[in-house]
């Protein structure tokens, strides 16, 4: 029995189809949405969402943080930003990483909330670069 | 009476104005379609977000310590108004409607003894309000109404509002934007964002009693992260609607202008022809009376 997965960014719906399993990067560890999963809401960190049909990964999307809402029959991923892994631009991501690293160096080290936010962004961009690298 | 030469010049100038307005109408129609598609594409995110907020609010009902974004600061002394206008004019009453509505709201709140602050979005609103309420404007956002309108425009604005809230700068935040009814009519609408009226939560509840949700990491953290995002999404929706409305209003205004120009050309042409004939008749009379005199 499949589960309906939707990946939605604020600007548009990227994916809306039935898959057998979707693995997503929860803030406290990766988690898989499968049919008959208990209803759950979670925070996502930057990482890759893999859509499975049977045992094989059919599609991979990079999400830069967001939220997920899963129930027994559907899973809605609200991504801050989302791109198919094949369309990731390593160059632009690297540039953004450099910018963020500079911002980190310049940031006031006693401002914990700002540092937390920056760190989350840096990790998200690192995950993006990693996801965008061609498989070895 | 104007001379033939003057009339010819005026007809020429009205004709070229008509060409411009009719071209602007075409452009606005194309942009309108794109803006509407964008507004539609952004719909599902807002719907899903509202559903999640509803579930969360239901799960947290009765718990203390609701974040300021949801419950407000407890007071309603200082109001922040965010009027959304366009950067460019020639759109009929589109911007002046918002400006008038904002002005009325400011006056009304001030009469009630509240403090009002303004954060205008769009050049037209910012310029107008700066003339009358320059001391009330805390910040302004200009140059986001272009055809792109990325989500980051809304998220920057949202972050700005949240940091103002955290700094205790205001108690209630209301957006005033043009709601897109149809191409012909855009209605200036106030929408209160902070504190958030969660009427939608009640509507979502029947869905919630199906099974108990689990939350990761926990309700409080999720809510704290969802609320600013929700604010951004609502702002984005308002900005998109305003962008579509702007094009709709411009299209209608330019259609009217084109039609008016057509009428003006007809009227001027008629005057021109009458004058020309009168001149010819005059000349004939002169020739004939000259011939008779001989």
UniProtKB/TrEMBL annotation, chain A:
Residues 3-82 form the ATP synthase F1 complex delta/epsilon subunit N-terminal domain. GO terms for cellular component: endomembrane system; plasma membrane; proton-transporting ATP synthase complex. One of its GO terms (molecular function) is ATP binding. It is a peripheral membrane protein. Keywords: ATP synthesis, Cell membrane, CF(1), Hydrogen ion transport, Ion transport, Membrane, Transport. F-type ATPases have 2 components, CF(1) - the catalytic core - and CF(0) - the membrane proton channel. CF(1) has five subunits: alpha(3), beta(3), gamma(1), delta(1), epsilon(1). CF(0) has three main subunits: a, b and c. This is ATP synthase epsilon chain. It comes from Acetobacter nitrogenifigens DSM 23921 = NBRC 105050.
UniProtKB/TrEMBL annotation, chain B:
One of its GO terms (molecular function) is ATP binding. PROSITE patterns: ATPASE_GAMMA. Its main location: membrane. GO terms for cellular component: plasma membrane; proton-transporting ATP synthase complex. Keywords: ATP synthesis, Cell membrane, CF(1), Hydrogen ion transport, Ion transport, Membrane, Transport. Pfam families: ATP-synt. It is found in: Cell membrane; Membrane. It comes from the Bacteria. NCBIfam families: ATPsyn_F1gamma, PRK05621.1-4. F-type ATPases have 2 components, CF(1) - the catalytic core - and CF(0) - the membrane proton channel. CF(1) has five subunits: alpha(3), beta(3), gamma(1), delta(1), epsilon(1). CF(0) has three main subunits: a, b and c. Belongs to the ATPase gamma chain family. PANTHER family: ATP SYNTHASE GAMMA CHAIN, ATP SYNTHASE SUBUNIT GAMMA, MITOCHONDRIAL. This is ATP synthase gamma chain. It comes from Acetobacter nitrogenifigens DSM 23921 = NBRC 105050. The gene is atpG.
């Amino acid at each position: 029995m499949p589960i309906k997965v939707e990946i939605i960014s604020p600007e548009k719906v990227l994916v809306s189809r039935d898959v057998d399993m979707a693995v997503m990067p929860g803030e406290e560890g990766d988690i898989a949405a499968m049919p008959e999963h208990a209803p759950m809401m979670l925070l996502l960190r930057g990482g890759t969402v893999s859509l499975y049909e049977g045992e094989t990964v059919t599609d991979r999307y990079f999400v830069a943080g967001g939220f997920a809402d899963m129930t027994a029959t559907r899973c809605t991923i609200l991504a801050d930003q989302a791109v198919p892994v094949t369309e990731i631009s390593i160059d632009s991501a690297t540039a953004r990483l450099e910018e963020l690293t500079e911002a980190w160096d310049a940031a006031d080290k006693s401002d914990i909330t700002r540092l937390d936010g920056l760190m989350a962004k840096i990790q998200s961009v690192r995950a993006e670069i990693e996801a965008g690298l061609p498989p070895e | 009476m104007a001379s033939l030469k003057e009339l010819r010049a005026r007809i020429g100038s009205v004709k070229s104005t008509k060409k411009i307005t009719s071209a602007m109408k075409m452009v606005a129609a194309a942009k309108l379609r794109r803006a509407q598609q964008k507004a539609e594409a952004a719909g599902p995110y807002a719907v899903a977000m509202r559903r999640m907020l509803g579930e969360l609010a239901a799960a947290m009902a009765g718990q203390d310590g609701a974040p300021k974004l949801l419950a407000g600061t407890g007071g309603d002394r200082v109001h922040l108004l965010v009027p959304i206008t366009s950067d460019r004019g020639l759109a009929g009453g589109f911007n002046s409607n918002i400006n008038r509505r904002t002005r009325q709201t400011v006056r009304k709140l001030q009469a009630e003894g509240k403090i009002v602050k303004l954060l205008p979005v769009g050049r037209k609103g910012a310029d107008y309000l700066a003339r009358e309420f320059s001391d009330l404007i805390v910040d302004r956002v200009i140059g986001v109404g272009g055809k792109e309108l990325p989500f980051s425009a809304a998220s920057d604005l949202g972050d700005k509002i949240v940091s103002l809230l955290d700094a205790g700068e205001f108690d209630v935040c209301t957006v005033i934007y043009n709601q897109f009814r149809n191409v012909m009519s855009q209605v200036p609408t106030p929408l209160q964002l902070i504190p958030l009226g969660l009427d939608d939560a009640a509507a979502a509840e029947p869905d919630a009693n199906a099974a108990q949700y689990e939350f990761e990491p926990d309700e409080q953290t999720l809510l704290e992260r969802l609320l600013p995002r929700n604010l951004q999404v609502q702002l984005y929706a308002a900005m998109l609607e305003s962008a579509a409305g702007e094009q709709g209003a411009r299209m209608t205004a330019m259609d009217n202008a084109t039609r008016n120009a057509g009428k003006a050309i007809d009227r001027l042409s008629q005057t021109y022809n009458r004058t020309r004939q009168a001149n010819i008749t005059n000349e004939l009379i002169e020739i004939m009376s000259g011939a008779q005199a001989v």
